Structures are given as structure tokens and as C-alpha cells.
Task: structure prediction
Amino acid sequence: MSVKRSIGENIFTVFNTIIMCAVVFVTLYPFIYVALASLSDPSRLSVHEGPLLYPLGFTLGAYKGAFFNPMILIGYRNTLFYVVIGTTYSVFMTSLGAYVLSRRTLYWRRFITLLCVFTMFFSGGMIPSYLIVRSLGLENTVFALIIPSSISTFNLILMRTSFLSIPESLEQSAKIDGANDWTILFRIVLPLSMPIVAVMILFYGVGIWNSWFSAMLYLRNRALYPLQLILREILIIFNLDMMATGVGNVERESFGLTIKYAVIMIASIPIMCVYPFLQKYFIKGIMVGAIKE
Result:
């Protein structure tokens, strides 16, 4: 049965559509601008004013300049390793912690959860963290970027909330059939919590992909550098080189600008290609705990 909409509702729909289109444009245009600028001729881009709607003299010079550094491919390899191994390890450890905290028979469950939440507001800081990593022999190893940040308290609480929504009768039935906690977690709880698992993969994956400070702090071997640290190094070296050759060199300055745009695209495109495949799970998982029946 169709419901006739009033004039006020139609007016609201029109204005709402216009506003949302404007929000989408404002949000999307900076990325479009960076993409078009990275493909533009540096000399023409430096004198261009106003919106950029198409590449100014299509060229891949900025990307060639970025990939001229042989460390780019090494950085991609290392980052993919950190993302795959780190995300897998983080999701596994977070699942274990969330499963334990979601057990209603756990003694001092509220107190332990409170201690975990406490770490969201107060932490030891950078220097104590570095001293712990060094004392454990993790400095200048791949494990320094995986183990110390393996569990996020926010993600732990989010996954715990999802596990609490699973009917307790399912677990009791499994225990009657002889299932232990490992079987319940991997055969019942996790398969029923795939939306939240996808959210964890997205959160941890994006976090590890964008991370560079931990690598700068713990790594000394350049062969272990992730992509983000390599790209940061390219920008710093190019800026220092440009300063050494003279600030008045307009051509080099404009080329450096397109290099920066190309570096942004190189770092952003891979993770943006992954997000659409996890979006539906992300929307479901992020609503965990929002509705109580």
C-alpha cells in the first residue's frame, strides 16, 4: 500500500538530498584534487588557481619520481607482511581476551574489564614502552611492530559486547555435547560473530597500514621499514635537497608538490580498494551494542 507524502515531506526530501550531495562533494573532492594533481604537469599546476577538474598536462612523472626510490617496493613488501601477520595475530589475541571477558562465570569479571578500560585513559607513555620493548629483545625486529600493539582496548570491549549477545543456551548445549572452550570459541562464537570480526580486521588492518611512528621508534634496519616510513623519508629527503639547492628553484618546488600528491595516492589506494569488500560487515559490526531488546 502506497502512502501519499505531504508537501512538507517532499520539500524536506529535496533539501535533504541537496545537503547530502553537497556533503559528499566536500568530502570526496579533496581526494579527487590530490589524484588529479598527482597526474598533472608540475609547471602548469604551480600556476593554476581555483578548482582542479582534470589533469593539467597528463604525466606520470611524479609516480616515476616516487618509485625511483628502490625502497618503495621493499616498503610495500614489509607493510603487507605487517598487515597480514599483525592483523591475524591481533584479531586472534583480541578474540581470546573478549571470549574470556564475556564469560559470565569468570570471577572478578567486572574488575578485570575495568582494568582493561583504565588503560584507554592512562598509559605508561612512549619512554616506558620503548624500555619494555628493548628489555624484551624486540627492538629492531619485526615483532616490535606486531606484539606490543596486538590488542586495542576499544576493539576488545567491542568484541566482548558482540560475544555477550550470543545466547548462552548455545554454549551450554555445546558443553553438554563435550565441547571445551576452544571448540566453543572457534566453532560457535566466532562463526556467529563474523560482522564484528570483519570490523576488527578493518580496524587493525588500517591502523597497521597507516602506522609509522612505532617503526621510527623501534626499527634501525632500513630493510624492515614499512611503506609509510619510506614515504615519509622520501618527502624529507626531497625537501632537504630542495632547500640545499635554493628555495628559488620554482621547477623543483613544483615537482616536489606533485611528488607529495603521488605519495598520498600510493599510500591511500591499496587500503581504499579493500574497504568496499568489508563495508557491509563494518556497518553490521559497528552497531553492536547500539540496540538492546
